[in-house]
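User: Please predict the structure of the protein below. I'd like the answer in structure-token form so I can feed it into my own downstream comparison script.

Assistant: Understood. Taking the following sequence of 428 residues as input:
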Amino acid sequence: MRKSITGFLVTSLLVFVLCIPPAVIAAQKVRIGALFPFSGPLALLGQETFNGATIAADMVNDKGGVWGKQIEWVKGDGVDPKKAMTECERLISVQGLRLIFGTYSSSRSYAASEVAERNKVIYWEQGAIADPITERGLKYLFRTCPRASQFGIMAADFANEVIAPKLGIDPKQMKVAIMFEDSLYGTTVGGNAAKHALKLGMKVVATDSYSHKTVDLSPVAMRFKARKPDVIIATSYLEDGLLFWRQAKEADLNVKAFIGTGACHGMPDWAKTFGDEANYIFNIDPAIGINPNVLSPKTKAVLKEFQERFNKKFGHLPATHASLGFVGARVLFEEVLPRAASLDPEAVREAALKVDIPKGGTIFGFGVKFAPPVHPAAGQNLLAHPALMQWQEQRMWVAYPLDFGVRDPLLPLPTWEQRAKGVTRFVK
């Protein structure tokens, strides 16, 4: 008799659950669009960035979620800018989402955020850095990461303020070659690097752009070799960046310093591919492993938990792109949505504009304060900035700005012949 009653209750409960309308179930979740290149040539970094965001969601969900509801991702595959637009439209019109989180790639973010703006839906960008994204006066766009111009400017400033004096070169005589892939990301970084280097009086001896899909960058390597630059500033995605370094070795192209500006040169794959030949390359990105004295005690604890969770879930420690996803999501989940009390875009906008996180309040060391709609960079985090790191012993170490640094930069970059012989000599 007891078994019959128990069976009846279980069956009744199951029927009740199955009869709950999907809309009611969805209302019990905080559903957020995740728009990234999950397939195609940029899928590696797109997925890695999203992985960082999932850890932020896990940490919040384990504490009860937002407003007592669990965060749920609804994915859209922005394999290219056109598909990013159609996927954004699908997430909004078909899935009924009011907040889109993405997108890592600048060209995809620029296109998709127009769709979100037209639909009056929040577009939360955490990794696409091209300046034009926040120069359009969009009302519903917010970006937590630095701008591309800051990457290019920092590369030129570092060459002028650190490399030239350290090597005893008159900055006005320093020769710089600049290379960049020709998407919105690359052209914005490379263009600003060239412009600022010229402003500082340095000699820009070459400026080469190319498609990140190229299979041969030897012409660029040979052209640079002929121009004999002291410094190369490069903006590359992974495959093209790896290709150029291989062909630079084949061409015996030697320079005193090589500065990457995001993507390729800061990824673990750089060291995995080249081993010790990855060492002494600089890269500019939001920094991981900064001087811990910059971070607040609370942020240090958050960083430790993030790294432990990420390593357990994905089998390796988070690098820059995963960290960008984490920071962007954490600001949204911990600082904005609790204030907004709903996913209403107007409420989220108001809450975002009230965020004021001081220096040391994110794991990158920078704070968060979004530019208001009347600002030329509306929606941009005005406190975000990158840092400059160097590969030493197949690990990245922050070297600049000085208060963020943990190691001194090693200069000059050894020649290929010196590397082959195991000879490295650096100036103090």
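That's the full token string. The domain at 149-285+393-421 is CATH 3.40.50.2300 (Rossmann fold).
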